[in-house]
Structures are given as structure tokens and as C-alpha cells.
Amino acid sequence: MPERPSPAPLVRRTTHPLLADDRPIRLPHTEFDGAEVRFLGEPVDPAVLPSSATELWHACDGARPYRSWPSRERELIAGWHAAGLVVAAPPPRSQPSRALTLLSPHPDDAQLALGGLLARFGGRVVDVFSHETWTRRAHYRSRPSLASRLLLEEERVACGVLGAELTVLGHTDAADRAAWRDGYFLGPQSVDAARATEPELFERVTADLAAEAAGGGLVLVPLAVGGHVDHVLTRQAALELIARRTLEPERVAFYEDMPYSLFADATAEAGRLAVGPEPAAPVPVLIPASEAAVRTKQEALWPYRLQVLEAVSKRIVRHGRRLGAPGWAERLWVLPESAAAFGELAAAAAEEAVAAG
Fold this sequence. Notes:
Helices cover 39% and strands 14% of the residues. By secondary structure, the protein is an alpha/beta fold. Helix 3 (109-121) runs antiparallel to helix 10 (291-301).
């Protein structure tokens, strides 16, 4: 029998050392089948994750600070973190410091765009089209049920890192809907096709978002840069709620969809929006973040292994450095009615970034 090749070494290039008060969270892509351990379908070197450490592995659920384990176990956990098998959540906040609701077309959209904001303030992520099966990884393409489960588990881990609440609405991703089998990206002049093609779905999404946006806090809506139909439907449903006076425009801002905003013109997309009785296009507001918040965003993006490339995550972080130079920032687009509320949010974020050095 030919000798089985050794497992490829796991190396996480985007990493920071574990801090004493960090809370390790295991990633959901690890499978134990009795004979070996596999991560993302590939065998893991027993020296990295020995069978004797299975109980320790399952104990990495975000509940315990890194410093609470004995030194030998800390050594193993640090190795898992360096290999990308666990991520580090900062100490939990007692409660969100702002009432924020982020409407996320899919799992990962809110975190890719506004992970720094969530790291600073907390809040709630509402995943709209959360039933997905698409993945870049061949191991999971032939296992759509497993892929669907893991995509949601990735989202839960990311929200655990950011200290964000999660609501899952369960609508089906466009890639799995018959209406968009031939392509689900719309041009700027075709956004009305999203609602007209699936009117019943649009009404269901609008009703769901009316319930989720109730309560008086600030609501962050995708700008729909890039024209993905699910992003357009989410944005148009929020605009419909404003038109019906169910959602007050002074509570609303739009965020730049990532990674689409790396390649498309967010300014042009914002210029096409006209909201309210006296229509005016939104204007940009930068939300600064401290280096600690940037680190937390990077940790929160790492769990998205089935769809998001590491190179894309790095580009998003670099984009934030260009926006906020000499610091770091994410960009919102605010309406005249919401300028005061989101200006206050930006000022609070800037104060925290300065205080953190």
C-alpha cells in the first residue's frame, strides 16, 4: 500500500498573538471521524490537533479567557490560533453601546462592510437571504446541506468575535432561486427588475424588515454597490418602508457593500438614491476605528472560509486604511435627516480611536 502523504501544514498569515483576556472560539470546519481530524476537508497534522486534545478543542467556545487555561493547554490553543483553527474574541461588553441594526443581505455582508463599527459599538445583524449553498471549495460543493450549515456557523462565530447579536430570516439566496439562474447582478438602470421579478418575495422581505427595524435605533442598509439582486432587494425594501412611513429616514444610513465597493463606484451608486418627500442624495460620513477594532474585524472575517478569500479580506482592511488615513475608517452614506445622529456616532468612534492611541 502506498504511503499516505503527510497533511499540509496549516499557516495563518493574517494573525495576531492571543491576548490574556481573549476568548478563543473554534471554527466549525473541523471534522472528527475517529481516525483523523480534518479541517476544510483536509487532514490536520496530529501534532497540531492530537486526539487527546479533543475535549480542549470543544471547550474553545468563547466563554473562557485564554489566561484561564494551564500553560500546556494555552500552548495548544496558541498553535490552533496561529494555524487558523480558532479565532480570538475580545472580552464581552456588558451591553451594546449603541442601538444599531445592520441589515445584511447575506451572512458576511455586514461584517465585511462594517466589522469595525460592530467591534466598537456592538449591535444586531439581521441576515436576510441566509439560506445559501454556494461555496468556492470543491469539498463542500458536493455537500450543499453541509455547506449551508457551515455558512451560518461561520456567521455565528464572526458575530461572537464582534459581540453582535444575530437574527436569521431564512430567505433563499439568489444563486438558488430559479428567477436568477442566468445571473443575479443588475445594472444601475435595472434595479426595478428585482422587485418586479419576485413581487411576493419582495413583500415578504419588506414585512420581515418592518418588524426587525422597529424600536427606534439606527438602521444600516446596504447601498447595493455592484448590483447583486439580494442587496438591491434589501435596499429597496428599506426604501419602501421609508416611503410607507414605517421607517423614519432620520434613523437610516447606507453602507458600502464589500468587496463590491473595491471595484465599483460607491459615490455614483449613492448619487442615484433619492429618499424622502424632498429627495436628496446621501452624503459620506467616515466612522473611524481604533487599531483594536481593526484587529477584531480581521478576526471576525477569518471564519468566512467557504466564500471569502483571504486576499479579499486583506484588501478590505487596506481600503479602510486609505479611507481613514492617517487612521482607519469605514464609510457610511447619510441622509439630511439622519446627519445629526450619524455625525454623533462618528464623533464617538473618533473619540474612542484617539483614546486607544
